[in-house]
């Protein structure tokens, strides 16, 4: 059976996630309004501008629906998407969805290295694999709750985390040809 995954399509690079999901055989629905969440097997919150996306989540009446979906289905946030999923982001323009027990700070890698690509070692279910990662004005994860598993780090800082079925990446897995992180997300379904 083909599953339908939602991609929050309010702002940011949702189209790239849509392409990856199509390449993995999923149906994809762009989510803009509450009814777009009905029947989804999971949701991706893309990178973009977290303050803008936070405002539009409320403007479009999506907040409660996303939180309700996350009780039953996996949600993955990449970059700004992770900021929105966090419990705390130290920016009062952002209301966190509190789907991941992490505290983040935005745009935290310093000006000189605000964008970079690096190979990452991902540790999933006892396996170690290298995946390429593109960081663009990435957040840093400053605190982790005890239920949060770190799947990859850079210099001892977590950059890919999992809590139950939910995944958060400070980088952009949708910007490389490597689809393993999306596959991992789909396995939680
Ligand atoms: N810096 C952006 C923010 O804080 C995130 C950047 C991104 O998603 N690439 O929302």
Structural notes for this entry:
- With 189 residues, this protein is α/β, with parallel strands linked by helices.
- The chain has a single domain, classed as Class I glutamine amidotransferase (GATase) domain (Rossmann fold, 3-Layer(aba) Sandwich), CATH 3.40.50.880.
- 23% of the residues lie in helices and 37% in strands.
- It contains five helices and twelve strands.
- The strands form three sheets. The chain has a seven-stranded mixed beta sheet with strand order 2-1-3-4-12-11-10.
- Strand 7 (115-124) and strand 8 form a beta hairpin.
- The protein is globular, with a radius of gyration of 15 Å.
- The protein starts with a strand and ends with a helix.
- The mean pLDDT is 95.
- It binds glutamine (GLN).
- Glutamine is lined by residues 47-50, 79-80, 83, 106-107, 136-137.
- The site of glutamine has 11 residues, from helix 4.
Number of helices: 5
Instruction: Tell me the fraction of residues in β-strands, as a range.
Output: 35-45%
Q: Compute the gyration radius: what is it?
A: 15 Å
Number of domains: 1
């Amino acid at each position: 059976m083909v599953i339908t995954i939602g991609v929050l399509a309010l702002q940011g690079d949702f189209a790239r996630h849509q392409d990856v999901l199509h390449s993995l055989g999923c149906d994809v629905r762009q989510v803009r309004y509450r009814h777009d969440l009905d029947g989804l097997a999971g949701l991706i919150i893309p990178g973009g501008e977290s303050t803008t996306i936070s405002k539009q989540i409320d403007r479009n009446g999506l907040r409660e629906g996303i939180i309700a979906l996350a009780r039953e289905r996996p949600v993955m946030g990449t970059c700004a998407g992770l900021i929105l999923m966090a419990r705390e982001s130290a920016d009062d323009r952002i209301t966190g969805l509190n789907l991941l027990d992490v505290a983040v700070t935005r745009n935290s890698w310093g000006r000189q290295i605000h964008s970079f690509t690096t190979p990452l070692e991902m540790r999933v279910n006892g396996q170690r694999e290298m995946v390429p990662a593109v960081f663009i004005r990435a957040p840093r994860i400053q605190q982790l709750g005890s239920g949060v598993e770190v799947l990859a780090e850079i210099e001892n800082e977590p950059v890919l985390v999992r809590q139950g079925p939910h995944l958060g990446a400070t980088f952009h897995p949708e910007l490389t040809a490597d689809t393993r992180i999306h596959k991992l997300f789909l396995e939680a379904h």
